[in-house]
């Protein structure tokens, strides 16, 4: 009886405290000269008390940029298993027939484990590559056509190789490529403004300007993918023949070679906001769920199975956030973050997948480290006039929050938007 009486006495105090907290955050937003210049949305959720603390335009739709990768993270955790399948294969007589699985790591300059390469190079069987039927174009709806030669927008394919990019670098004053195959496709053209290299829009030919190659020059350019080119590059690195076996359907008794732990590649995608990894992980999940490479079908499945539980619908056109067509709300991002908390075994395991303030990934130059420890773990999102952060916040008092801070159509200096987010999130950390 006494306990209930004390609780009743405390209720007005708790209500007053909550109201004061809301007023203090509201004042931050209302007095922000930076935020008043563009569309912004914010949602803050108290994980421990299971309640929304404060929101601005919580149900308004925003372009999320690379916050879209949080959706890819969820579907990958749910459907990819502990390890990424590197290829599927069957043995028929003296032949090994293999298919791609969407795995982005094969001969990737940073992520390749060598397991798939070793398997193909050591097998005593003749090699036959069976190209999968692709049901979508290599680019997603809403991608910028002019970005065809930027390393953040390689083509999406069933069996990537070298990250579907060519690496150009200065080696003792000479331009060298990995893979070497493309060196024969480079021509010298007049140019202005120093050394540069550009790919032709519709061909795998590259023009470099006639200036001296800069010391330390390294550049990566996407190439136009085809099954024939894949086999050519594969033969060059394996030093053994590979035959294309067109139209050979995958049987039910395929086996797999696994390339990498799933969470290792997810951490790479999240920390460095890697668009290529995100899109290929969508293909990997689609392959395992439907035995086909159909990211649009996967998004529809996720929308029906998971996102239909959100307060607001979401509209997604890719898995990386390059598409300007993607639309979400801050409230839906909070609900996604809460789903992610349930998809992993421990909070520590989840936070390790996120960039940490002043510590790792795209947040390594933002926030401070009070007592030497980060207090923000968030996925960033950046494209033209779009900047977002969605993730988790630990307050100085030990309380845990989920937050989503979205900014669209700002004009001018991105740093001022970042600094304003840091100022507000740090205030919440210090005072809540």
Would you write up a description of this structure?
- With 432 residues, this protein is of the alpha+beta class.
- 31% of the residues lie in helices and 22% in strands.
- It contains 10 helices and 16 strands.
- The chain has helices at residues 2-30, 69-79, 115-122, 227-238, 262-272, 275-290, 295-305, 330-343, 347-351, 414-431; strands at 39-46, 51-56, 83-92, 95-99, 126-129, 165-171, 174-178, 186-189, 197-199, 206-209, 218-222, 242-244, 255-261, 376-383, 386-394, 400-408.
- It has a 5-stranded antiparallel sheet, with helices on both faces. A 5-stranded mixed sheet has the order 12-5-4-3-13. The chain has a 3-stranded antiparallel sheet with strand order 7-6-11, with no helix packed on it.
- A hairpin with a 2-residue loop joins strand 14 (376-383) and strand 15 (386-394).
- The chain is globular.
- The protein starts with a helix and ends with a helix.
- The model has no long low-confidence stretch (mean pLDDT 95).
């Amino acid at each position: 009886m006494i306990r209930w009486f004390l609780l009743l006495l405390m209720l007005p105090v708790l209500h007053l405290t909550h109201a004061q907290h809301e007023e203090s955050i509201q004042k931050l937003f209302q007095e922000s000269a930076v935020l008043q210049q563009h569309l912004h949305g914010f949602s803050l959720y108290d994980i421990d008390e299971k309640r929304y603390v404060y929101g601005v335009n919580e149900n308004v739709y925003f372009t999320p940029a690379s916050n879209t990768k949080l959706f890819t993270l969820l579907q990958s955790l749910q459907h990819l298993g502990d390890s990424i399948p590197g290829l599927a294969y069957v043995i028929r007589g003296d032949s090994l027939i293999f298919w791609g699985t969407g795995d982005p790591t094969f001969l990737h300059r940073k992520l390749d484990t060598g397991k798939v390469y070793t398997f193909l190079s050591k097998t005593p069987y003749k090699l036959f590559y069976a190209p999968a039927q692709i049901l979508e174009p290599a680019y997603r709806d809403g991608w910028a056509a002019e970005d065809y030669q930027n390393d953040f927008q390689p083509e999406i394919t069933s069996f990537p190789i070298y990250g579907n990019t060519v690496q150009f670098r200065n080696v003792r004053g000479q331009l060298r490529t990995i893979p070497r195959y493309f060196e024969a496709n480079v021509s010298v053209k007049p140019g202005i403004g120093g050394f540069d290299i550009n790919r032709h829009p519709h061909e795998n030919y590259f023009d470099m300007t006639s200036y001296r190659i800069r010391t330390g020059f390294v550049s990566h350019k996407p190439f136009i993918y085809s099954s024939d080119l894949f086999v050519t590059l594969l033969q060059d690195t394996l030093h053994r023949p590979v035959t294309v076996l067109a139209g050979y359907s995958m049987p039910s008794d395929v086996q797999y070679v696994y390339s990498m732990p799933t969470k290792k590649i997810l951490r790479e995608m999240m920390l460095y906001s890697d668009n290529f990894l995100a899109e290929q992980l969508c293909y990997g999940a689609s392959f395992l769920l439907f035995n086909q490479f159909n990211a649009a079908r996967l998004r529809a499945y996720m929308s029906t199975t998971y996102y239909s539980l959100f307060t607001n619908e979401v509209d997604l056109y890719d898995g990386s956030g390059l598409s300007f067509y993607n639309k979400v709300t801050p409230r839906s991002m909070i609900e996604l973050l809460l789903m992610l908390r349930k998809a992993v075994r421990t909070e520590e395991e989840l936070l390790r997948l996120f960039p940490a303030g002043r510590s790792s990934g795209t947040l390594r130059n933002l926030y401070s480290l009070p007592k030497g420890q980060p207090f923000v773990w968030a996925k960033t999102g950046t494209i033209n006039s779009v900047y977002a952060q969605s993730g988790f916040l630990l307050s100085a008092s030990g309380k845990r929050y989920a937050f989503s801070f979205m900014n669209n159509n700002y004009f001018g200096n991105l740093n001022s938007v970042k600094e304003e987010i840091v100022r507000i999130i740090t205030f919440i950390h210090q005072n809540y």
